[in-house]
Structure formats: structure tokens, C-alpha cells
Amino acid sequence: MSVERFTGGPAAVLGAAASGARRKPPFVHRPLLYIILLALYAALFWDGLLPPSAREGEVYELPAPRAERALEEVLRHPREVPFATAAAVMVPLIVGSGLLVGYVLLRAHNIVVFPAREFPVVPWTGWHLLRVTIGLFVILRAVGVGMAWLLDTQETSAFWCRIPDGVLLILASNISMLALCGFILCLVGRREGNPLRLLGLGEARLLRRIGMGAVCYLMTFPVLFIAGVLMFILGPKMGIPARPQEVLAQVALLSPAAFGFVLFSAAVVTPLTEELVFRGFVYATLRRTLGPLSAIALSAAAFAAMHAYAFGLLPLFVIGFLLAYLYERTGSLWASVTAHAANNLYALLITYYALHQGAP
User: Fold this and answer.
1) Which of 69, 148, 322, 340 has the maximum number of C-beta atoms within 10 A of its C-beta?
2) Structural domain count, the chain
3) pLDDT at position 18
4) How far apart are CA 316 and CA 323, in angstroms?
């Protein structure tokens, strides 16, 4: 039996090649999908999709008067802050300052502390970034409409009325970021290799990266502290009130079980999803065109802006800069995820304790 007969002959081979060339790209890469998404985004602003109370102009504000009063007491009488709260700030400030000074001295003597690794070159372009941006706005709007209905029916639903508003807020954020991560993984696909490796999650030396992330967060703590003090001084002069982030303000109102859910989200879900989006995808895409430094600054600015927290804009930019630098230095997201988790847990725990101590 001839080879041509066994394989179907040259004509069959050429036909298979032609059919492969005509193979359509995945739907997530087709322009039609993004036209549909833009139309959906516009449709989500139709008032008929909102609950009656929202259509009548009622604005949903998550109540946190107790947290607001507690923060006002802390700011009005800073010398009366409990010793444990003051120690929780001063200890990492002193340790972090020592680590930062030591790092600067070692670098001044050309001693490499954290050896750099080759950064993975990604195949994504600005078009991919535009597609993800479209997906982000659609997801945020869709989740926002869903939250409006949940809050509207919370008083009449036996199930939803038992869930605190703060937990609903965290849940909505988790759903949005998980959906966006799923969209990014579908967009990246496997055509250019393992998507998790290209996104910085294919690290073998996991414990080393986790340790590096924890140490780098401590080193950055003094800079974060200075950024917070600057916002505290300059914020009121710029019309920015000194108030806790809405998510953190809700923490003081939660039961232990609900607080445990928030802790899990802050330590696991939020760091993983936000690092995959802002560093694994956004920073890596910008770096391909702009270079490391400009991409670090721009991705940090986007990270700070997406949190929509004016009083924390400068500290958020600083932590975003650190996280992108860690990814650039290590080529792995795990160091950034660790530093992000440490920052979230610290902010959550210190706020929870301080607000409970300050509120009557």
C-alpha cells in the first residue's frame, strides 16, 4: 500500500491544510463579540433594568455611622489611641525602616540582594488591553445592576436580609474580578503557550517568592506610612475628607463569621485576582510597548484609580508601584500576591481593631 493511498494522497493533505488556514479564530477574538459587549454596556444603563427605588433616584449608601464616628474620635484625639494600635503601626515601621536602610546600603556597595530574573515576554498587544477594558466595564455595570436589585429586595428576602451589606459589597467585588480573570484566560488561551506561566503564576520556587514578597512589603511600609501622612495633611486642603475606605468602614459592623469571609477574600481572592489582572496582564502588556519604568508607573496609577478611594490614592499608587516592581524583578506573580495579601490583611486588621476601640 502506497503512502499516498494511506494518507489520502496529496490532494487530501492540501485540502486539510487549506481548511486549517480557513479555521475561524475563537469567538473571544472576534470583533463581533466586542460590538455585542458595547451594545450590552449601553443597554445596562436603561432605567428599566433597575429596581423601582433606583429609578426614582434613590442612592444606595452602605450605612457605617459607627465606623465614621470611631475614625473621627481617633483623628480628633490621636494621643488617646490604644497602645496595641500604636504598637501595630510602630513595630512594622521600625522594622521596615531598618530593612529599607540595609537594602539601600547593600545596593550602594553593589551587593545584589534580590537577583533579577528574565521577565517573560508576552504576545499581547494594546488591542488585547482594549478588549479587556471593554469586558471590565461591562462586568462592573452588570454586577452593579445586580447589586441594586439585591439591595432593593434585601428587606423582603428571607435569605438576603441576613447577609450584611459589607459582605455583599465584598462578594460583588469578588464576582467582578473572578469574571474578569476568566475573560482574560479565555482571551489569552493556549495558542502562545501555558497562559498561567505567561501570566506569572508558573513559579517553581514558591516559598522563596512568598518570603521575598513579605520582606519587600515590610521594606515599603515606611514609604506607605509617609504617603498616608501626606494624604492626611494635604487631603483636607484639596477637599478630600479623611475617611476610611467604604469596604474597611463596613468591617467594624460585621459578625465574626462575616469577618472571617472578608479575611479570606482579603488574603486569597483579592490578591490573586487583582495581581493577575493588574500585574500579570495589564503591566505585562504595557511593558511590551512602554518599557519597565513607564509601565510600572502607569499600571500603578490604574491600580490606584480603580479602587475609587481618593484619600488613599497616594498609598495605593505606592503599593501598586511596589507590586509591579516585584513582578518585574522576579518574573513571578507570587511575590506580588504575598505583598498584596500582607497589605490587605494589615489594613483590615488594624482598621477592625481601631474602629472597635474608638466607637462607643
Assistant:
1) 340
2) 1
3) 47
4) 10
